[in-house]
Write a structure and sequence with these properties.
The termini are close together. Helix 7 links the parallel strand 11 and strand 12. Helix 5 packs across helix 6. The radius of gyration is 20 Å and the shape is globular. The strands form 4 sheets. Strands 3, 4, 5, 8, 9, 16 and 17 form a 7-stranded mixed sheet that branches. Strands 12-11-10-13-14-15 form a 6-stranded parallel sheet, sandwiched between helices. The longest helix is centred in the C-terminal third of the chain and has 12 residues. By secondary structure, it is α/β, with parallel strands linked by helices. The chain contains 12 helices and 17 strands.
Length: 338
C-alpha cells in the first residue's frame, strides 16, 4: 500500500510502498477514505517539540484525523463493525484503568497510544485501529467532511466546554485556521457573542462565514485597545501557536475571564501575574478530547451546526501541503484522500 513515511525529523515525508497491516486481536483494518492534515503533524514532522519527539515511533506514518471503512476484523471483534464507516482520533487507545481514565480524562491517559505518533496513522491507504476506540461516522457526513472533526473539531469543542462559557458571554477566537473557524461555529452554537482575530483578511472572511459577529485584523488595528474599551471578553481562546496572539489575549479579559490555551507556541508565554490575580483571571488548557467528546462534536455536525471548510488533495501532495501550512497560506483544513 502507498503511505507517506517519516524517517527523520525536519526532512520531507517519503512516499513508499509499505506492507498492508494485519489487524490483531481487538483491532480492525480500515481502508482510509480521508485523513485531515493537522498543524500538530507539521510540528511533529519538523521536530519542533523535542520532549514530545521522544515518544515518536520511527519510521512513522503520521496522521490522526482518520475516517475509513472497516474492511477486515481481528479476533474478538464484533461482526457488525465490518463495512462500517468509522473514525480514529488522536487517542488511538486508552487503558481505562489509570487515575486519569477513571476520572473521565481518557484524552490524557497515562498509558495511551497516540495515532500517528506512537503508532502508525492515516497518511496511507490502510491502517489498523482499536475496535474499542473507533467511532461511527453519521451517514450525513462524507469521510472528508468528518475527518477534521476527529481532532480540530473535538479539540475546540472540549476547550469551549471546559471553559464553561454560557449564553450571552463574549468569546474572542485568535487564529481562524482549521481549529479557529470550527471554534467560532461551536461558540455560536453555545449562544455566545464571537469576535475573531487574525492577520489575514481571507481568514477573517471565513470567520464571518463561520458565524463571527465581529472580526479584527491584528496587523491593521489595535485589537487590545478595542476589546478593552468595549468591556473585554469572558474567554480568549487562542487557536494559533503565535506568541503575539497570547500577548494580546492576556490583556483583554473581563474580571473573572479566562485565556484558553489551544495553539501551542514553541516559545514560553509571558503575562502580568499581578494583573491576572487582581482580576481573578484564569489560564486554562485543553487537549483533544474523549470518545464522548468526539461523539458530541459529530452530533453537532450531523445537526447542521458545524461544518468544516476543507479542500481535498491526493496523498502525493503531502509535502507541498505541509510547506503551505508552514507559510500560513491554507484556508480551513486540507484533507488527504488516498
Amino acid at each position: 500500500m502507498l503511505a507517506a513515511v517519516l524517517h527523520e525529523f525536519g526532512q520531507p515525508l517519503v512516499l513508499e510502498d509499505v506492507p498492508r497491516p494485519v489487524p490483531q486481536e481487538g483491532e480492525v483494518l480500515l481502508q482510509v477514505g480521508a485523513c485531515g492534515v493537522c498543524h500538530s503533524d507539521l510540528h511533529l514532522i519538523r521536530g519542533d517539540w523535542p520532549a514530545f519527539a521522544k515518544l515518536v515511533k520511527r519510521p512513522l506514518i503520521p496522521g490522526h484525523e482518520v475516517v475509513g471503512k472497516v474492511v477486515e476484523l481481528g479476533k474478538a471483534v464484533a461482526e457488525d463493525l465490518l463495512n462500517e464507516t468509522v473514525g480514529v482520533s488522536w487517542v488511538f487507545w486508552s487503558c481505562g484503568h489509570c487515575l486519569t481514565c477513571r476520572e473521565g480524562r481518557e484524552n490524557i491517559c497515562q498509558n495511551r497510544a497516540i495515532t500517528g505518533v506512537t503508532v502508525n496513522g492515516g497518511y496511507s491507504e490502510f491502517m489498523v485501529a482499536k475496535a474499542s476506540h473507533v467511532i461511527a461516522v453519521p451517514n450525513s457526513l462524507s469521510p472528508a467532511a468528518a475527518a477534521p472533526l476527529f481532532c480540530a473539531g473535538v479539540t475546540v469543542y472540549r476547550a469551549l466546554r471546559n471553559a464553561e462559557i454560557i449564553q450571552g458571554q463574549r468569546v474572542a477566537v485568535f487564529g481562524v485556521g482549521g481549529l479557529g473557524h470550527l471554534a467560532i461555529q461551536i461558540a455560536r452554537a453555545m449562544g455566545t457573542d464571537v469576535i475573531a482575530i487574525d492577520v489575514d483578511d481571507a481568514k477573517l472572511a471565513l470567520a464571518r462565514e463561520s458565524g463571527a459577529q465581529h472580526v479584527l485584523n491584528s496587523e491593521k488595528e489595535n485589537v487590545a485597545a478595542q476589546l478593552r474599551d468595549s468591556g473585554g471578553v469572558h474567554l480568549a481562546l487562542v487557536a494559533t501557536p503565535a506568541k503575539s496572539a497570547y500577548d494580546i489575549a492576556f490583556t483583554i479579559l473581563r474580571p473573572g475571564g479566562a485565556v484558553m490555551i489551544v495553539g501551542l507556541p514553541s516559545e514560553p508565554l509571558t503575562f502580568d501575574a499581578v494583573k491576572l490575580a487582581r482580576n481573578e483571571a484564569r489560564i486554562l488548557t485543553s487537549v483533544v478530547g474523549t470518545r464522548q467528546d468526539v461523539r458530541r462534536t459529530l452530533a453537532l455536525a450531523d445537526a447542521g451546526k458545524l461544518q468544516c471548510h476543507f479542500e481535498t488533495r491526493p496523498l502525493a501532495q503531502i509535502n507541498e501541503i505541509l510547506d503551505e501550512m508552514h507559510r500560513g497560506t491554507l484556508l480551513g483544513r486540507v484533507v488527504l484522500v488516498p
